[in-house]
Amino acid sequence: MQITFLGTSSGVPTRSRNVSSIALRLPQRAELWLFDCGEGTQHQILRSDLKVSQLSRIFITHLHGDHIFGLMGLLASCGLAGNVERVDIYGPSGLNEYLQAASRYSHTHFSYPIKVHTIQPGIIYEDDEFTVTCGLLHHRITAFGYRVAEKDRAGRFDVEKAKALQIPSGPIYGQLKRGETVTLEDGSVIDGSQLCGPTEIGRKFVYCTDTVYCDGAVQLAQDADVLIHEATFAHQDADMAFQRLHSTTTMAAQTAYLAGVNRLIMTHFSPRYAPGNAIELKDLLREARAIFPNTIMAHDFMVYDVPRRREVILN
Questions:
Q1: pLDDT at 314 over 50
Q2: Given 66, 225, 237, 300, the catalytic residue
């Protein structure tokens, strides 16, 4: 699981930060999942190492323009390029109508199937490797956070040990790899778990924006390996955050702390904290680390590989 930040500004783009979008690359299945799609996202993808031909799923948090204005353009370009097989899009009520209207008035016709899924809290997608869950956040309009949970995998199967026990290769190896107990023809009983390394615990990635501090975000982020959380405002601007239902740095850090996550990555920064202003982004990072030390700040084109739990080292 590899995360690429394509837009880390709030509201409007700046010279160094585009509006909201992140990409989750799944190398083991050559797929790309997108979370939000602010204006200019397709340009950001072109400037990255991502392959738009691998795009298969898009998850939209809410229908504010800085999170969806790039969606129609990206979908249209994928159609013209002719290298996307199918795209499933997940988001709140109204998303399908928005795309239909944009398609109708721009006379855009897609050369590949697009399926829009109107979501409600709970599991919205599941396959053999991943479960995707969404939960309600607290914003001015309906907004959802997303949790991607990789399923646990059996540890590495020790083929040499199996051979030493004179276990014949074939379908039996498959059963043993799954940790099953197998009885051989000579009556020997083999416990597959004894031939496999430690179970590989699935990684958990959570994306929460836009929202003021809320219990829903804490619940969604429980025990996550990485939480990406908006931090639009500095702590001293908390009144503005409550008025606009956005988070401060301390709200993001409190969410990470209470949820017991391993790493917090803040994003969605207000342009008001540009270099030279009274409060700068470095001050925002300092505020968050005072509560949750293992915090970093995202920047456009930052790439983050989500480590497995045993690989995580707190800074």
A1: no
A2: 66
